Amino acid sequence: MASNPAQFELSILLIDDNQARAESIQSALDNSRYCIKHITSPKFGLLKLVDEFQPDMIVIDIESPSRDMLESLHTISAFNPKPVVMFSEKEDTETINLSVKSGVSAYVAGDTDPARVRAILDAAVARFDAFQQLRQELDDTKQALEARKVIDQAKRLLMEQSGMSEQDAYKRMRKMAMDAGQKLEEVAKTLIAVMQNMKLG
Amino acid sequence: MSSPDLNIGYMPLNDAAPLIIAKELGFFEKAGLDVQLRKQNSWATLRDKLHVGLLDAAHMLAPMPIASSLGLGCQPTAVIAPLIMSQNGNAITLSNNLVDDIVAENGLSEISFPLSAKLLAPIIESRKSSGKSKLQLAHVFPYSCHYYQLLDWLKQGGIQMEDVDIHVITPADMVDAMLNNDIDGFCVGSPWNAKAVRAGVGITVTTSFDIWGNAPEKVLGILKSRFDETPELFERIISAIKETCQWLSILPNRFEAALILSKTAYLDTPLEVVAPSLLGSCLTKPNTAPRELPLYNVFGALDVNSMENSIVEDFILLQKHMLSAKQIHNEVPKAHLLEILNANA
């Protein structure tokens, strides 16, 4: 998503049963980079709509019954994660802060002053991007650690079973990986499977 | 004995009865508790409000505290379930059209209950071969017994999960979605199955009790950090709810409970829809004698310290269902489940 927030147009799916509020948000965002599609809480088919419309962000009234439908979106990996912003009737700073901490991307309470709404949406997008990046980094680190473990195990097995030195075992695996055009981790996995079978046999 | 204002959240369902009756018949008041009940429109919002402390406690689906503590669909948040408020109460209702197809395609003279999902097989086959869309089924929340019961019912009938489309719809909207032909069947809690039958929209073919036997359904969810601040206050709430459950276990009281639940402030639903499951009666289809199901809505007030083993076993089973639904990839350690249940060390 946009690293420079002024560059791209972002589409927003707004789910709100309060027509007047929806209109005021829409007009607040006229001539901005946000392009809004407003719907009232659908009783069915929200995921299909999200799939068709592919919004960059979803803004929903916290009291909407469609929230559970939206919740199932997180469990379907085919849908890319999207920032969700909640609207609430009540002005309650404490709630706002807590919700932000608890993972909701932003919490817009009370008024829909154009400048403020736009600022909140900008902040939500930025925070969401940062969060996604952090999560990606965490996933990458986890995977690297996992790969390290597998490679070490394969190396140990090679050393035990073929009496190789650590360096030779590593070289052997690297050569196998290069010859097969595979990642070192994949070669290590295959080796472990084969050597464990040999042990059993 | 006075208490601060306490906010307890619930979803409009028959098994919110322990909270609604405790409020209406003064069990909370007697315990010196000033409780406001807050009706919610979605499980997700109920959960979020509990997590941020807008609600002091909530009527929750039994798997929700596990999902909260693991951070499934939310930030990891320690929620405890020191009290199982109810067991059973869910059922599967199929649309009239689907039931007509079941009767025709299986060459049945009439339908019998509980219905096996096996009978869906010829319909799934013929829909597949004629290029029609899959059967559309719904439940209420990703982390709900309803979802696991629906999956188990299908599995028991040899139906693959990939052969149907499964959706999430909030309980009170279920009947409308069926009326609108958006869905062919759903698994939901009372009284929404009875509503479908009364409205002539669908036929209740089996219940969660038929699929699982007795199983925990709703728990009292409390933020662990809140509980630890004022355990004595929460113990008072818990014992008031337990007392209410005892009152609810007496059958002649159930009609009064139905009358209260049906009020606008609570379920806002006619008595003839709310009452049957509370009285142990499972409506199946119009103009047919209901099935007698004494354990349809059980208000047990079970707590882990009085019946430790069976509840822990039940929660071990629950996390197994989460595993087989691929919502989690590792077993939840027993010690973690005991912590969620607030078991005494």
From TrEMBL, chain A:
Pfam families, A to Z: ANTAR, Response_reg
A molecular-function term among this protein's GO annotations: RNA binding
GO biological process: phosphorelay signal transduction system
Superkingdom of origin organism: Bacteria
InterPro entries: ANTAR (IPR005561), CheY-like_superfamily (IPR011006), Sig_transdc_resp-reg_antiterm (IPR008327), Sig_transdc_resp-reg_receiver (IPR001789), WH-like_DNA-bd_sf (IPR036388)
PROSITE patterns: ANTAR (PS50921), RESPONSE_REGULATORY (PS50110)
Residue ranges of every copy of the Response regulatory domain listed in the record: 11-125
4-aspartylphosphate carried by residues: 61
Domain ANTAR: 131-192
Keywords: Phosphoprotein
Descriptive protein name: Two-component system response regulator
The species this protein was found in: Agaribacter marinus
TrEMBL record, chain B:
CDD domains: PBP2_NrtA_CpmA_like
Alphabetically ordered keywords of this record: Cell inner membrane, Cell membrane, Membrane, Transport
The UniProt record lists the keyword Heme: no
Compartment(s): Endomembrane system
Chief location category: membrane
Taxonomy, superkingdom: Bacteria
InterPro entries: NrtA/CpmA_ABC-bd_dom
One Pfam short name: NMT1_2
Membrane spanning residue stretches: none
Cellular component per GO, a single term: endomembrane system
PANTHER family for this protein: ALIPHATIC SULFONATES-BINDING PROTEIN-RELATED, BLL4572 PROTEIN
Name of the protein this chain belongs to: Uncharacterized protein
Highest classification ranks of the organism: Bacteria, Pseudomonadati, Pseudomonadota, Gammaproteobacteria, Alteromonadales
